Amino acid sequence: MTEQPEGTAGEGAEAAQEPTAGTPPGALQKADLGKRIPAALIDGLLAFVIGWIPFIGGIIAAAYWLVRDGLELDFMDRRSIGKKLMKLRPVTLDGTPMDIMTSAKRNWMFALVGVAQLLIYTIIGILLAIPLIFVAFLLGILELILVITDDEGRRLGDKIANTMVIEVDE
């Protein structure tokens, strides 16, 4: 019996390998929607609840959305809490580690909801928050459509930041 290359058969074959500088485009396998959608719901619920803390919640929620995939915290490991729980990891296509700037590029559209939650505490803010929430909603629909229809599962934020989400063993 011949040995097969790592990740092609046997134990751990379901999880994609993380890219390195020499990983060819298309060599990464997109994450399953059955994991990706629950991860997004976990992150969304977390940010939404935090966003309702008077005055500072919107700032914290927007900050979480922006930097969630680039924080070097042990319990997060350069990925959001939802992705960590669902064993997913955002990776750059060139193999460089995720950082805060890359995270902000791929997640800015979700931070709009946190900004809207911050604005809601004033009358002028409510007038600004309503169209902002509408724009965020439309962007969210576009992102979902791209995750479902794109061959690599890459949404608009992934294309801007040159990233994709893969499944990992831990």
Question: Your description of this structure?
Answer:
The protein is mainly α and 170 residues long. It has one domain. Helix content is 52%, strand content 6%. The chain has six helices and two strands. It has helices spanning 33-51, 57-67, 81-85, 100-119, 123-149, 156-161, and strands at residues 88-92, 163-167. A two-stranded antiparallel sheet has the order 1-2. Helix 1 runs antiparallel to helix 2 (57-67) and helix 4 packs across helix 5 (123-149). The two termini are 29 Å apart. Mean pLDDT is 85; it is low at 1-14.
Brief summary:
The chain has a two-stranded antiparallel sheet.
What layout of secondary structure does this protein have?
Layout: H1 33-51, H2 57-67, H3 81-85, E1 88-92, H4 100-119, H5 123-149, H6 156-161, E2 163-167
Antiparallel strand pairs: 1-2
